[in-house]
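Run folding on both entries below.
>entry_1
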Amino acid sequence: MKKLLAMLLVLTMAVSVTACGGKGEEKTEAPSEALEETPGEEAEEEGAAEAPAEGAEYVVGICQLVQHDALDAATQGFMDALKEELGDQVTFDEQNASGDPATCSTIINQFVSNDVDLILANATPALQAATAGTDTIPILGTSVTEYGVALDIDNFNGTVGGNVSGTSDLAPLDEQAAMLKELFPDAKNVGLLYCSAEANSQYQVDTVQSELEKLGYTCKQYPFSDTNDLSAVTTTAADENDVMYVPTDNTAASNAEIINNICEPAKVPVIAGEEGICAGCGVATLSISYYDLGVATGKMAAKILTGESNISEMPIEYAPQFVKKYNKALCDSLEITIPEDYVVIGE
């Protein structure tokens, strides 16, 4: 009888010990063969704990305002750079808003719902939608001319802070004005054509107008609200001016053929803010490489995702160099002689 009571007591104690064990204890138990480690294996596990990003997988949402050469190049450069840095660790959810800022907001909301690891906002309306949509997911802008203007930041010092940073496509506007003077010293009137819905376009034409007026030109701004009035506004501008200036403007870039079909027959040359617009309707530009801009943004993204850099402390980066380029076919058509230090677009 005593033996039977003793056995029952032992069984009761065993059950109590098992019941007290939590889930964490169950996870630490392993078959004996799994506990056999080669020398250094424990150290490798400790290293992985110190660098949790190693081997992690990331989803990056890309919101591009519209499809045109400049923005396409920036997106491609971004993806190529990030793939080079992180390889198969990163996948992309690439979305295009077809020029509609409201669609940008829809895309961003979906990225937030999917809890992506980082958002690339390609163009100003995409950046504005992203900053309105989340203050926690890291946001990198690209193809954004002036972040202080885009995000309504007074006395912008070059660092947005919070969850936002990125790259700027701003070329020296005073040098673009000087380019117009170099090519058309005898012109009198300059029309500045831009989309009034794009805040950074307004900033550019205001700045360029000030520079051109210092050089003795009479300037007039010709804003169009969207593609519906672009043709009429361009026709008026071409009738009233000797030369046109079109800034880095997404709506103009997407409709450069419309601008060219009016300005070329009227023999009114266009100085463009970037290469893509110049290829479609301009004679010359002082431009950047949007692909290289995208690459720089991709390298920033890799540092953020791996924890190497804190996005709140990352200043806006700018293109490292600018190149004078010209549209040979259009210059030939308008019989414009271009200085030797200009590079033919496409070569």
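>entry_2
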Amino acid sequence: MTRRHDPDGLRLPIKIDATSNGEFQPIEISTANREGNKLALEQASQNARRTGFNRRSFLISSCGAATTLLAFNDVNAQAGKTGGSFELEPDAAFDPELAMHHLSGEEFIFDVQGHFVDPNGRWIQENPDAGRGFMFQEKAGCSLFDENVPNSHLQCLGPQEFVKDVFLDSDTDMMVLSFVPSTKATEPLTIEEADATRQIVDGLEGNQRLLLHGRVNPNQDGDLQAMDELKERWNVCGWKTYTQFGPGGKGFFLSDEDTGIPFIEKAIDLGLKIICVHKGLPFGPHSYEHSQCHDIGVVAKRYPDVNFLVYHSGFVASKAEGPYVGNGSGDGIDTLVKSLIDNDIAPNSNVYAELGSTWRFAMRDPDNAAHVLGKLVKYCGENNVLWGTDSIWYGSPQDQIQALRTFQISKEFQERFGYAPMTPRLRAKIFGLNAMPVYGIDMQEAKLRTSRDEVSHHRANYLNQPNPRYATYGPKNRREFLNLKRWES
């Protein structure tokens, strides 16, 4: 496993490592990534001395993040990456105001894919080895960690830390708490536990800050029947499904008449017409075709009044993205693009592309990042790309936010492939404006509530003396990944 730590255990504020969200096997970072991390730590040490800070203080400052992104730019340029870069002036590495000018923003950030696991739930009691999938390295920095107590490190992922990572250590204003693929008996987060976490946030007067999905896999007995309770009792905001997941490893398509269609029509009958479907990030070779997006355009055309939110956008981490040409590559985001074109689904229609794990992985490589963002905006529409981070798997989502705020598709790629530039207006749409009407949230009311609630006061006080971990929690190698997948057994 590649370590990004210097001898004193310091971490970079922009976390480029092999961590996955537990749905795909971790992929080692590239030589350029390793060199970028090394250069960033070296330059952070130099810049800390130059500005009179100790290294820890420098790294948690805006200049620390700017130094890291600028180091990535240098290494990517040397590697011949021409697709894009993080736009910062070099002096941002020393000038806090200039760094904040680039890295901060007034966008309303609505993260439509967050995750949380119950550290004391039935899933870990029945499969203790699954906890080894969370082998994050700062156990010693968590007061709840006890090396003599099995899986005590999971307590460091409890609801209070979730609130800290999401609402204090990042600029996130709202989040949808989603679910991982599982059966009812093996859920690492049940709807009851998710609601308890929502109530913690609500207890801080954070009403509407945390919304809940309802997990539904129509190829599992009882899931369709459970939709009524999910809506009426738990007030879910949409339905989350995994088409590659199912009994015996057999998935389904949303267009299947015996599974997908009854699911969509049940959602219509219940008056909650938001279908959030995991596409891409395949779990493995079994039922691989069901991880692809061939069915999206079909059902979007058949049900134009239903919103289909394609979580991960069809992205496959092991496949480098390129421009869409003709029928596409046959995998990855191209399967979404092809499905839209084949079914005459115009941009800004009823298909939305979500960026959870997709952006976090793509920001490793500016060429990949440019093709991901460029194609999604071009073919799904500037109003139909949604912000998601898949945190807590990746710790606080602030580094993903800062990376998107500064990333620009190069003029070369804009001209060659017809990609739109990343303007402040487009970023604001992606960060939150696009998701608000989909989830039926009034922007003015949301801004008013979040500007005055207890969470905002906590954040303001916390920022006087921040203490971010810069840790990632998901599996970082094959062994940890397989341990984490044991919850499905």
